[in-house]
Structure formats: structure tokens, C-alpha cells
Specification:
It catalyses: sn-glycerol 3-phosphate + NAD(+) = dihydroxyacetone phosphate + NADH + H(+); sn-glycerol 3-phosphate + NADP(+) = dihydroxyacetone phosphate + NADPH + H(+). This is Glycerol-3-phosphate dehydrogenase [NAD(P)+]. It holds the Pfam family NAD_Gly3P_dh_C. It is built from 15 helices and 8 strands. The chain is an alpha/beta fold. It has 2 domains: 177 residues, Rossmann fold; 137 residues, N-(1-d-carboxylethyl)-l-norvaline Dehydrogenase, domain 2, CATH 1.10.1040. Strands 3-2-1-4-5-6-7-8 form an 8-stranded mixed β-sheet, with helices on both faces. Strand 4, helix 4 and strand 5 form a beta-alpha-beta unit. Helix 4 packs parallel to helix 5, helix 8 runs parallel beside helix 11 and helix 14 runs antiparallel to helix 15. It is globular and about 65 Å long. The structure holds nicotinamide-adenine-dinucleotide (NAD) and SN-glycerol-3-phosphate (G3P). The site of nicotinamide-adenine-dinucleotide (NAD) has 24 residues, from helix 1.
Length: 336
């Protein structure tokens, strides 16, 4: 009998824990790394994650540790599930501990501030591995639903299709159905920008602008994401797939989305400080809207919705004034 695939999941937040559960349900031997020893202890003793997924019973072939070396030892897959802006510093500490041929898997949906690097680029840069050793899992994957084993599809992207297929097999369960894709640029961009569009739709929902506004923002959000993707060499079809449209629809429809909820609170009139204070988990779009806009400017791409989100979240513009400006933009053809 062949030995089970070993997976280290670095991050015991909501998605790290839920995806660890998927891997364990698919038959992998899973070790979660938790920053706080008391959380690792709670996971092992209660078989739940009381801080991030209370009430969800975790499988027996998943355990937690606060010792990164122990988690990473002999891992076939090293899954990174921490906030995007903390990846570089954490991975620099973990790199000497990585198993020699491990495949690094990003669950993160963000773009690094300053460098404007996608998460797979940060991984290649810090861990000094080639693109064929880095994979991305993305798509409409709200952690709470997956933890309840509700059905979801996903995309597993890697430039090396065989590596993507290995990861696909390692996380395929009766409720989690991953597809492979070799367009890593498109898959990552789609995931990061949908958080920004999720903020915009949340703001519109909080303002009570209705479903026509929501449909319009999702569609034009996808249009500006695709424009950026094309400028960066992505396959435009990726954006109408699970990583693009699929994730946008899930995020923009769900009160479980942290980005959507963050936007809704702003749209209802909460200040940025009040909104941050009531947000207990990572809403990646809040920081990544700035790096996405930076990326758009570097590539000479117009992203009016992203620009609007930055102006509301980081420049103190009122949602009402921002809406007026968006609606007053010059009339133009739908396709350019
Ligand atoms: N939650 C979801 O539904 C979901 C789904 C798909 C993708 N994602 C993406 O997965 C990534 C992780 O999100 P999450 O939902 O698990 O977030 P979370 O807020 O639930 O958990 C974040 C985890 O990172 C840890 N952490 C925070 N700051 C850290 C630091 N400086 N160093 C090391 N660890 C730190 C926290 O302790 C926690 O374990 C994000 O990029 C998010 O966009 C989330
Ligand atoms: O809760 P959010 O807004 O980070 O969204 C979670 C996932 O990305 C949905 O696919």
C-alpha cells in the first residue's frame, strides 16, 4: 500500500482549516500550523477550531502544531493560508525548513503592496523555486460552506499540468471538485481583484442601491479585471470561469464574504475605523485594492471601480460622492 500524501497547511484561520479538512477528507495526512500554541492545542484536544470554525468537527487524520518545522517535515504539499501581506516575512522563516521537493500551494487572494507581486511570484522569489513547484487554489470557496461539506467547485492552477493534476487528486472529495488550469496569472488576478469588486458591491448593497447596481458592478468589475489580465498575459477565458465569474458571484452574493460585509458596513455609513473594528478576519481587498490599482497604473489599464474603492477605503471619499462620479463618467462603447 502506498503511503498517504502528506500536507502541511500553514495557517489555522478559516480557509486554512477548511481546506485542511478537504485534504484530510481526500485521504491526505494533514498537519495545520497555528501561530498560537493554544489554538493548536484546542484543535487537537477538541477536534474543532473554536476560534475560526466553531462547531465544525475536524477529521482524525488532521492535527495541529505551533512548531513550523514539525508541520513542514516531509510535506508533499506545503499550503500557505495566511494574509497575503504577511507571506514574504513568514515564508522567509519557513524556507530553510521546507521539504526538498515540496509543492508550494497558495490559497491567498491578494497582491503584495509595494512590489505588486502576485502570491505565486512572492513564493518563487522567497523560496527560490521554479514556477513548476508553485500552485494556486482558487474559485468560489467560502470557507464556512466548505467546512459544512456543502458542494463547491474550485480551480487548481499550476504552469505544470502534471503538478496541478497531483494536487487535484489530493483535494478531490465528494463535496469539493477541483478543475485544473495552467493560467496561473489569470487565476491569481481573478481571485485578488474579485475581493476589490466584492467591496464595491458591498458598499452598493449597504447604500441600498438595488440588484441592477449589483449586476452592473459585477459585470463591469469583471470587464476591468479582464482588461488587466489581458495586459498581463492572462487567458481571457479564465475570467469567465470559476476563478473569475464563479468567485465574483459567490463573493458578491454572500453575507459570509468578509470583503462583501466590509463594504456593506462602509456603505451603511460606518467609518473605516468602525468597520475595521468589527471585522475579525482577513478582508484582503482592503489592502490589495491599492496594489491592484498600482498594478493597473503600471500596465496603463483603466480600472474605475478599483479606483473608486481605493478612494472610499483609503482616501475618505464618501460613497455618495463616489457613486455620483462613477455615474458621470464619459459615455463609451461597452467593448473597447
Ligand atoms: N475564508 C475564506 O472563505 C477564503 C476562501 C478562499 C481564499 N481565502 C484566502 O485565504 C487567505 C487566508 O484567509 P483566511 O480566511 O484563512 O483568513 P483568517 O483571517 O480566517 O485567518 C488568517 C490566519 O493567518 C494567521 N495570521 C494572521 N496574521 C499573521 C501573521 N502576521 N503571520 C502569520 N500568521 C498570521 C491568523 O492567525 C489565522 O490563522 C486570504 O488570502 C483569503 O483571501 C479565504
Ligand atoms: O470572505 P472573503 O471575502 O475573503 O471571500 C472568501 C472567498 O474568497 C470566496 O471564494
Amino acid at each position: 500500500m502506498s503511503k498517504p500524501v502528506r500536507a502541511a497547511v500553514m495557517g489555522t484561520g478559516s480557509w486554512g482549516t477548511a481546506f485542511g479538512m478537504v485534504l484530510a477528507d481526500a485521504g491526505c495526512d494533514v498537519t495545520l500550523w497555528a501561530r498560537r500554541p493554544e489554538l493548536a492545542e484546542a484543535v487537537n484536544s477538541t477536534r474543532t477550531n473554536p476560534d475560526y470554525l466553531p462547531g465544525v468537527e475536524l477529521p482524525g487524520n488532521l492535527r495541529a502544531t505551533a512548531d513550523a518545522a514539525e508541520a513542514l517535515r516531509d510535506a508533499d504539499f506545503t499550503v500557505l493560508a495566511i494574509p497575503s501581506q504577511t507571506l514574504r516575512a513568514n515564508l522567509a522563516e519557513w524556507t530553510p525548513l521546507l521539504a526538498p521537493d515540496t509543492v508550494l500551494v497558495s490559497l491567498m487572494k491578494g497582491v503584495e503592496l509595494g512590489s505588486t507581486m502576485r502570491m505565486s511570484e512572492v513564493i518563487e522569489d522567497v523560496a527560490k523555486v521554479g514556477a513548476d513547484r508553485v500552485a494556486v487554489v482558487t474559485g468560489p470557496n467560502l470557507a464556512r460552506e466548505i467546512a459544512a461539506r456543502m458542494p463547491a467547485l474550485a480551480v487548481v492552477a499550476c504552469t505544470d499540468e502534471q503538478v496541478a493534476q497531483r494536487l487535484q487528486a489530493a483535494c478531490h472529495t465528494p463535496y469539493f471538485r477541483p478543475y485544473t488550469n495552467t493560467d496561473v496569472v489569470g487565476c491569481e488576478l481573478a481571485g485578488a481583484v474579485k475581493n476589490v469588486i466584492g467591496l464595491a458591491v458591498g458598499i452598493a448593497d449597504g447604500m441600498g442601491l438595488g440588484d441592477n447596481a449589483k449586476g452592473s458592478l459585477i459585470t463591469r468589475g469583471l470587464a476591468e479585471t479582464t482588461r488587466l489580465g489581458l495586459a498581463m498575459g492572462a487567458d481571457p477565458l479564465t475570467f469567465s470561469g470559476l476563478a473569475g465569474l464563479g468567485d465574483l458571484v459567490a463573493t458578491c452574493s454572500s453575507p459570509l464574504s468578509r470583503n462583501h460585509t466590509f463594504g456593506t458596513n462602509l456603505g451603511k455609513g460606518m467609518t473605516l475605523e468602525e468597520t475595521i473594528a468589527v471585522t475579525r478576519q482577513t478582508a484582503e481587498g482592503v489592502k490589495s485594492c491599492e496594489s491592484v490599482l498600482d498594478l493597473a497604473r503600471r500596465h496603463g489599464v483603466d480600472m474605475p471601480i478599483t479606483e473608486t474603492v481605493v478612494s472610499i477605503v483609503h482616501e475618505g471619499k464618501s460613497p455618495v460622492a463616489a457613486l455620483k462620479e462613477l455615474m458621470a463618467r464619459s459615455a463609451k462603447p461597452e467593448r473597447r
